[in-house]
Amino acid sequence: QVQLVESGGGLVQAGGSLRLSCAVSGRTFSTNAMGWFRQAPGKERAFVAAITWGGTNTYADSVKGRFTISRDNAKNTVYLQMNSLKPEDTAVYYCAADRTLATYLRGGSDVDYWGKGTLVTVSS
Three-state DSSP class for 88? Predict the structure, then answer.
């Protein structure tokens, strides 16, 4: 099993920044590709970004140029740096783990593991 614990959510004004963290424990060898999703009120969960432990990454068009995903292999932690935040970025952000990046490119509905989420609220 793999455990994912998110942290770093909170309330921020539009234009501000937040950094989310996801601590990974358990069978980390099965988590080659880590990612972030978000679910806004009344909407379906949507892909945000993903990265392999080798550093290959991919982003949703809506966050390109504003969000950066990174990872610290030694700490088994994945980060999501969010800059120039907008009210429409308000959502619960979920960390995800899977064997392959392809899972995220297909939409991520069958990701192997999920965290419980952390709330990000961007005020206008």
Answer: helix
Q: How much is the mean pLDDT over the chain? A: 94
Per-residue model confidence (pLDDT) at position 30: 65
Cα–Cα distance list, 70 to 33, 45, 123 (Å): 11, 21, 25
Which helix (H) or strand (E) segment holds residue 50: the answer is strand 46-52
Rounded Cα–Cα distance for residues 109 and 45 (Å): 9
- What is the full DSSP assignment across 67-85? EEEEEETTTTEEEEEE-S-
pLDDT (tens digit, 9 = 90+) per residue, 17-46? Answer: 999 999 999 887 667 899 999 999 999 999
Task: Identify the pLDDT of residue 53.
Answer: 83
Q: Is 55 helix (H, G, I), strand (E, B) or coil?
A: coil
In this prediction, residues 104-122 reach a mean pLDDT of: 93
Alpha carbon distances (Å) from 62 to 52, 65, 84, 123: 20, 9, 12, 18
Q: In this structure, are residues 114 and 12 in contact, taking their beta carbons and an 8 Å threshold? A: no
